[in-house]
Amino acid sequence: MLIAYAARGGSLEKIDAPIDAPLPDDVVWVDLLKPTPEEDAFVERAIGASVPTREEMVEIEPSSRLYAEGAGRYMTALLLCVADHPTPRLAPVTFILTTRALVTVRYDSPKPFEWFAARACKSQTGTPFGLAPEGLLLGLFDAVIDRVADILEQVGEEVDSLSQTIFRRAGANAYRKPYQDLMKRIGAKGDLNSKARESLVTLQRVLLYFSAEINGAKPSKDAVKQIKPMQRDVSSLVEHANFLNDKITFLLDAMLGLVGLAQNDIVKLFSVMAVVFMPPTLVASIYGMNFEHMPELGWRFGYPYALGLMILSAILPYVIFKWRRWL
Do the bridges between strand 102-106 and strand 27-33 make them parallel or antiparallel, or are there none, so unpaired? Predict the structure, then answer.
């Protein structure tokens, strides 16, 4: 799908751009979503920049994600998609910056793209960074940073909630806490946090590459001034993601420790019960022997005596354990 945006009336306007007609001169952003070979060829003819394939976009080498070719700069970042679902994923998005237009190539639908396009088309003043290709690229980066910040804030709140659930009256509810459910939730938050951090790291590299001078070309002074606060924001978000990762690791370790304590309490309970019933078993075993001379067998109160002895031998270890605070 080819989505074209033109700068008209001080804002962006979504227009139709058929591949069998020339691209309008006022088009400043071409968004390729799951492009076909025909759409790739059309953009290459109209913009003068080759469109990378999906296989090229997923390469992990920096030289395959950040490079200059012809009059365009190619920058690929991993953006977080479906963060609100149980299985979030990272999707590679390539930004091709030329003097003619900005070209974005993606095979998924990150929310920042929808939000940024909707705001830029609705606003009467365009975007805070202007309607030039360079400004649109900065606007997209800013939207991505805001989205990741919101995700990390949500992760932090849910991690705090999990922490309160785990440690609130841990001793009293040791056998009732749904450990499996809690550990699954902790694991899900850890996975989301790690993906957000990975996205920020790739964006950090993209911003650094964008601000550098490549083949004698560099961004404008205004763009450099706007890139610096973004870099600071990304760095602070990476540090926050590291903090959340440490907290999630602590919660996971604490959960494993509580599970171990609960298991130890269960084993201790069975051990105490075995010790408590051991003396009565011994008494019953003695009086179950078939010896000829056992004085108690001829007593009138021999049976109650044996029962009382068994009860007393069971109570005595329990009292000793309570007195020594082993229970």
Answer: parallel
Same domain as 254, residue 275: no
* DSSP for residue 217: B
Could you tell me the pLDDT band of residue 326, with boundaries at 50, 70 and 90? low
Residue in this structure with the two tokens 């924001």, named with its chain if needed: 233
pTM exceeds cut of 0.90: no
Question: How many domains is the chain partitioned into structurally?
Answer: 2
Question: Domain range holding 301?
Answer: 270-323
- Contacts of residues 139-144 at CB distance under 8 Å and 24 or more positions apart, as own/partner, are 140/95, 140/104, 140/112, 140/113, 140/116, 141/203, 141/206, 141/207, 141/230, 142/230, 143/112, 143/113, 143/115, 143/116, 144/77, 144/79, 144/110, 144/112, 144/199, 144/203
Q: Of 235, 261, 287, which residue constitutes the final position of a domain?
A: 261
**Which CATH number is 315's domain given?**
1.20.58.340
Does residue 236 surpass a pLDDT of 70? yes
- Per-residue confidence band for 169, with pLDDT thresholds at 50, 70 and 90: low
**pLDDT of 66 over the 70 cut:** yes
